[in-house]
Structures are given as structure tokens and as C-alpha cells.
Amino acid sequence: MKIFLDTANVGDIKTATDWGAIDGVTTNPSLVAKEGRDFKQMVLEICEIVNGPVSAEVISLEADKMVEEGKGLAAWHKNVIVKIPCTPDGLKATKILEGQGIKVNVTLVFSVNQVLLCAKAGASFISPFVGRLDDIGEDGMQMVAESVAVIKNYNFKSEIIVASVRSVEHAKKAALVGAHIATIPFKILSEMFKHPLTDKGIEKFLADWKGAEGKV
Ligand code: E4P
Q1: Which of 129, 159, 165 to mutate to test the pocket of ligand 1 (most atoms within 8 A of CB)?
Q2: Most buried residue among 19, 65, 137, 181 by CB atoms closer than 10 A?
Q3: What catalytic reaction does the record list (predicted)?
Q4: φ and ψ at 82, to 5 degrees?
């Protein structure tokens, strides 16, 4: 499973890249607004750090405007993936952009039927939101597992990005159900390293080494 970082924070992206942990980045308007920086400059900086797909979202809602905006975003850098919401206009724009060789990540996806329609429109990436589904009492990861099955059944080119990841458990389950990608917030990615026995083991090894100093 590829791991993308779900953030617009350049510092966190640099740190995670240095860990060798990430294959791409997803941003959204909320994450971009949180940084309070110039959108284009920020995306270009991210593209220089990460050698992989970097999703930048359109804010238009009509297909023709999404296409225009998407073309503009894609022209910023070869790594930019145009992020488009899962609406009829969004999928119309997806079909046009993909037809012109511009890769699209369809976002705000909450059902398997939406996944099927995104795949048929030719989306390179499809982002089901597990956390937000769990929030309303649905089983987000079950929906992801079913989506992965649909993509495999019909050999669609689309890759499933598990989005709205809220826990290390989500990250693990995404890999277990065979998702192509999980986009993970920095905090969760950092937690994925942790195990108490790792810390305890280091402590013990160092203590033993100190005790044997001079003899080895
Ligand atoms: C995905 O591309 C979105 O940026 C993100 O995963 C949304 O997560 P949230 O539900 O925690 O806002």
C-alpha cells in the first residue's frame, strides 16, 4: 500500500519524506486554509519535496469551471493531481480532464456506487472517507473493502485512496483490505512507528552495552 500524507504543512511533509515513509500528498481547502499561505506557492514547495502525486482541490462546482480550474492547477507542476468532488458535474469534469491526460482524484466519496461511477468516468484516484462514514454510524472500512473488490472485479485503472483516516487501526485495516493507498495525517503516521517494546528494547540494549563497557 502506498502512503500519502494528508496535510498542507510543508514541515511535516519534509519530515515524513526524510523518514522514507510517503509516496504522495493530499491537500483539501480546509487543510490549505489552516496553513494561511499562498496556495500555489505552497503546492509548488510540496511538489519539490515529494516525488509523487500531490492532490490540489478545485473550488468550482460547475463542470466547465472545474475543467478550467483543473487545467490551471495541473499546469503548475507535473506532480499535481486535480482533486474534484463526487458530483455529476465533478464526474463530467473528471472524464474531460482524464481524456486530456490530466489525472484526477475524486474526493468526498461515501458509497460503493459512487466509487463505481468515478471508476467509469476514468478517475485515476478515488477517495472514500472512512472516518466521516464511521462518524455517522456506518462502517467506513467495509465500504472501502467493497470498493477495492469492485475495482478488482472489473480491472478498473482507478486506485482507491483511503481518506479521512483517524487512527492507526484505520491505517492497518486499509492495508489488510488491499487499498492501493491510504492518505494519513502526520499525527497518525507518527503513531504508526510506536510500540512500547521497541522503546523498552532500546533501553535494555543500551543499559547492557554500558554495563559491558571496556570489555567489548
Ligand atoms: C482526503 O483527501 C481529505 O483531505 C481528508 O482525508 C479528509 O479527512 P477528514 O475527514 O479528517 O477531514
Answers
A1: 129
A2: 181
A3: D-sedoheptulose 7-phosphate + D-glyceraldehyde 3-phosphate = D-erythrose 4-phosphate + beta-D-fructose 6-phosphate
A4: -85, 125
Domain ranges in the chain? 2-215
pLDDT tens digits for 65-115?
A: 999 999 999 999 999 999 999 999 999 999 999 999 999 999 999 999 999
Asked if 70 and 93 touch (Cβ cutoff 8 Å), the reply is yes
Structurally, what CATH architecture does the domain formed by 2-215 represent?
Answer: Alpha-Beta Barrel (3.20)
Element (DSSP H or E) covering residue 155: none
Q: What number does the ligand 1 atom closest to the CA of 26 have?
A: 2
Q: Which is the closest atom of ligand 1 to the Cα of 28?
A: 4
Question: Catalytic: 83?
Answer: yes
Tell me which residues have their CB closer than 6 angstroms to ligand 1: 6, 26, 28, 107, 127, 129, 131-132, 163-164, 183
